[in-house]
Every structure is written in structure tokens, then in C-alpha cells.
Amino acid sequence: MKWRVRLKQCESNKLYYNIYLYRLEIYNQLSTIFREKRLNVARESLDNLQAQHDIKSDLTVTWGRRLSPIRIQDFIDAKKLYNAFSNYNDFKLRVERNYLNIYCNDLGWLMYVSSLLDKESVRSLYKPNIKDIKLLDANTIIVDKDNGYQFRVTLGNKNTGSSFAAWARKNKKLVKVGYRCLEEMEGNGYVNNMYFYARDEKTLQLIALLTDNVRRIDKLVVKSTIDK
């Protein structure tokens, strides 16, 4: 069956959570009820809204101390999402305010979910180029151009240390660190999820000696070299 869904399609260059090929982004005021896939919590919220709808009352939810109106279309879409999530298991959800991201390896199922919802609510679908899929595995990122570095190093939430920043400034051929990241390092500030580039595996070994605040390391694969 062919699903007719009009949405923005974007090319992804890595696996999401080291597992999933595809990401569907949806806007819905009720996105937070699906946080951590707690469908029992979502069901309770939807039941409360249904009770309001049955007596023809305005739909509202309480977020903390704030009472917020809910659009009827978002309520309808949230019920459809609940049903879709209840009948499928192999996916991950991430909520960012009113945005709901669905990660999955079943493109057909994501397209089916898209077809259920109001077209204005479905914002984008991220998927890799079919030629790149065979290269996408954990800790691999496909890049358009060679920047002279083979790895991307993502930092954790520890103190990276000003001594590492000083070393990075003196060794720009080995590492490429953004200005803001360097500033935070030098001030022992917040660098969680910031990243920089490392030239090669020997450089990674040096980095390991200088700091233990490395969350992950991704190998960069240049797109133009894929078919060579």
C-alpha cells in the first residue's frame, strides 16, 4: 500500500542512538504525555481529555501550575499516536517540548504513522541515502567533505580541564576545537555534549591521557569515498 504523505524529507548521516536509521518529527501539544513510552500515563491523559470532549467542554491540561488549552486536532492526533504505539514495539521516542521524535528502522511503519496525522503536524522525516545505509553502524558519521580529521569526539558532563584546552590551542593540527568549547574548557564550564575533531587514532590515544571526559567517539566517513 502506498501512503500519500506530504512532508519535508531530510537526509541523515548517522544512526540515531546507534540503532535507528529513521526519524520522524511531529508537532503536537500533547507530546509530553508520551515521554519515555509510558503509554499508561498517555492513556490516563487522553481519557481525561475525552471526558472533557464528551461534555463539550474546552480541552485543557495542567502542566505544573499552568492550565493550557489543547487544540482538538492535537487531541485527535494524540489518540491515533497512542493506538499506533500500542500496536508496535520496536521504536524509541524523544520529546522536546511540543515536538515528538519517533526513531525506528521500519520506514513503512513511520510512513503509516505519518498518514494518520494532520499534514500540518508532521514536520519532517530523516532518512539516509540508500547508498549509505551499508556504511551506517554504531559510531559512524557520513560527511560531505574531508575536513582533515578522522574522528569526532563528544564530551561528557565532567570537568574537562583547562590543561586540555591549553594543549588543544597548541596542537591545532591534531585537534579542531570550536571557540565556545575552548572557552568553557578553560573556565571549567559546561561542555556536556559539545564536540571537537581529532586527526587520527594516535591523537585519540593522546586525548585519553589528557582527559577522561569523553562520552563517545565517532568515525567520519567522507561521502565521496564511499563508492571507491
Offer a few descriptive terms.
228 residues, alpha+beta, Alpha-Beta Plaits, five-stranded mixed sheet, 6 helices, 30% helix, disordered N terminus
Summarize the structure.
The chain is an alpha+beta fold and 228 residues long. The protein has helices at 39-54, 72-86, 107-116, 162-170, 179-186, 201-210; strands at residues 8-11, 22-27, 60-63, 66-69, 91-96, 99-104, 122-127, 140-143, 151-155, 175-176, 195-198, 214-222.
Gyration radius over CA? 22 Å
What strand order characterises the main sheet?
1-7-2-6-5
Question: What characterizes the major β-sheet?
Answer: 5 strands, mixed
Number of domains: 2
Briefly note the structural class of the backbone.
alpha+beta
| Helix share, percent | 25-40%
In terms of per-residue confidence, which ranges show pLDDT below 50 for 5 or more consecutive residues? 1-5
N- to C-terminal separation? 36 Å
**Residues in β-strands, percent:** 25-35%
Shape: elongated
What is the number of strand segments?
12
> What's the helix count?
6
